Amino acid sequence: MGGATKTGTKAYCPHCFLLVEENVPPNWPEAATRCQHCRLLIGPGRARPTAEATPGARGSAAGVFAHQAKREDGDDVSQDTIREAIRRVAEELGSRPERLLMVDYQQRASADDSLPTLSDVFSAFGSWKHARRESAV
């Protein structure tokens, strides 16, 4: 990333609204770059300054994450470990496990290697909804 940076400016993906980069200059990125979360391209200057999304946008991102997670083989992570991870993230975000959004879990899991990946969740439970329901019990 060349040029001067503006300290504190964050860049969020315009597709999944998850944090992509911190301390970026205005109109980031200078050239198209791929979001590490949803893998969609972010066009030049198209990053968003906040995670605020229009209704339904985060649901679209969840579809991208689910599709990607189903295609990848997850590690052999126990259902108990996954349930505990979902409960932990939900508690940290002030949510009930059965209401935790997949994109919120993905944001935490991408920054915390101790959390199972979405691929692990899908391998163990078959779906995000099933994993959430099981975590609420």
Describe the protein in words:
The radius of gyration is 16 Å and the shape is elongated. It has helices at 57-71, 79-93, 102-111, 118-125, 128-136, and strands spanning 10-12, 19-22, 33-34, 41-42. It is mainly alpha-helical and 137 residues long. Strand 1 (10-12) and strand 2 (19-22) form a beta hairpin.
Topology:
Layout (H helix, E strand, L loop, with lengths): L9 E3 L6 E4 L10 E2 L6 E2 L14 H15 L7 H15 L8 H10 L6 H8 L2 H9 L1
Antiparallel strand pairs: 1-2, 3-4
Shape: elongated
Largest sheet, spatial ordering of strands: 1-2
Helical amount among residues, as a percent range?
40-55%
Strand content: 5-15%
Number of DSSP-assigned strands: 4
Outline of the structure:
It is built from five helices and four strands.
Structure keywords:
two-stranded antiparallel sheet; 137 residues; single chain; mainly alpha; 4 strands; disordered N terminus; 42% helix
